[in-house]
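Q: Got a minute? One more chain.
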Amino acid sequence: MESYINWDKVIKKEARGINDDDLGEIQSIGPNYVITMKGIAHKKTYYIPKYLVKGYDGHNLWFKVTKKDLRNTFTRNTPPTPEEYNKYNSGAVSQTTSSASGQEAISVPTDLENRIPMIERKMTVAERDNEPAVLNWDNIVNKSVRTKDNEPIGDVVAVTSGSIVVTSIGARNEYYIPQSYVQRYDGSEVFLKLPLAAMDDYKI
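A: Always. Here it is, folded:
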């Protein structure tokens, strides 16, 4: 396996973060950032620093970024200036950098702006589950969803790599929910392992 891959090879791949967080689909590559997008009814655009990448496993691009980082730090409508994202780049000297939330350091190549380290294939939570809650995820599109406390929250509008996209009644809110939090599908409704109180964590 090659040690590195060019950034343009990961366009349209899924970006994943710490704890298997869904960071969206990669749309394009900037000089020091990766542009990802999430959402069906309400699209959100994110500019993630290249310097926080962990590597590409041939399927997903992994970052040392949490969903909180994504929502609070990297949600933007315009590209960042080089100065804004240079703070994440200590790689040119030390070849290490840290996540936006101050988590573990990562080794990066000095020319990270041009290439990505290849890493061992990393299974998502949904892929590691030997007995999936849903055998065919396409079957749940347009089905209604209930929380662990039996509260209706909306309908499944799409299934992405490792997540389901749920739009609330009236399309007021949109949620990206990891497939690992789907408890079961009874043929007409999807039931989550999450209570209603936890849904704000997955709102985009």
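A: The chain has a mean pLDDT of 86.
Q: Perfect, thanks.
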